[in-house]
């Protein structure tokens, strides 16, 4: 799992759990459908959805914004764990308990 290895390489301790359906996990953690992706994680009270770069997770943990979490919608080529030819620019989106979305960061190839 490329994204998990990316997080481990950045110093995070990662525990993974395979589940038959990720939908209940996303719902339970308040992930809006508009930013839904393949992985859902929690860290220190925040939700991480999709292939979020470790640098953005560290920034969020340092700044402690009043949000539910951050997400990389879909599976853009060039995001951690999705390396490949023709990497894409991709946003990291913050979301809160009211479903409000905002651009948290943008990564360019």
Automatic annotation (TrEMBL):
It comes from marine metagenome. This is CopG family transcriptional regulator. InterPro entries: DUF411. It holds the Pfam family DUF411.
């Amino acid at each position: 799992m490329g994204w998990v290895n990316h997080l481990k390489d950045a110093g995070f301790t990662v525990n993974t759990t395979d589940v038959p359906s990720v939908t209940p996990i996303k719902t339970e953690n308040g992930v809006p459908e508009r930013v839904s992706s393949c992985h859902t994680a929690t860290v220190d009270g925040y939700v991480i959805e999709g292939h979020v770069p470790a640098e953005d997770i560290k920034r969020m943990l340092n700044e402690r914004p009043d949000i539910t979490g951050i997400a990389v919608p879909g599976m853009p080529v060039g995001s951690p764990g999705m390396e490949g030819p023709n990497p894409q620019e991709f946003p990291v989106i913050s979301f809160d308990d009211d479903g409000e979305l905002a651009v948290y960061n943008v990564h360019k190839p």
